[in-house]
Hints:
Layout: E1 2-9, E2 19-26, H1 35-40, H2 50-66, H3 73-80, H4 84-91, H5 98-106, H6 113-121, H7 125-139
Antiparallel strand pairs: 1-2
Amino acid sequence: MSREMKIRHIPDSVESNQVETILSVRKRQSEPVTQDESEQEAPSHPRVPRITRLMALAIKFQGMIERGEIRDYADIARLGQVTRARVTQIMNLLLLAPDLQEILLFSFAAVQERHLREVSKVVEWREQRKYFTRALRRLEPESGLTES
């Protein structure tokens, strides 16, 4: 059973914006789970891959920056209690070609974010697609994916 916890960042100055974040809180593994709870927690749909959640998060963060809700990556890092380097890694997913971003968002591609770091460093989208195919092939060698 998960609960939601709201965290509200209240700025120090009147000129700043207010940011509200909702976090899901999970039970600890050491807590006993009753049979009723285990039946309720059974997902009716497959779990969304981590890379899909990270891609969506990068898009959301970029929108927040563009709207002026937050200033920069450092603000995101402070609010999310992660390092600025980690925020940069997540935001670099936005450097991927639009069709690759779409694949990450709408398919169940089981690629890891760290495998995409090299892909996002490539400027040419055609070359990114080749590297992306290699990253997918690294995880599923028997999948039969071919490079174009």
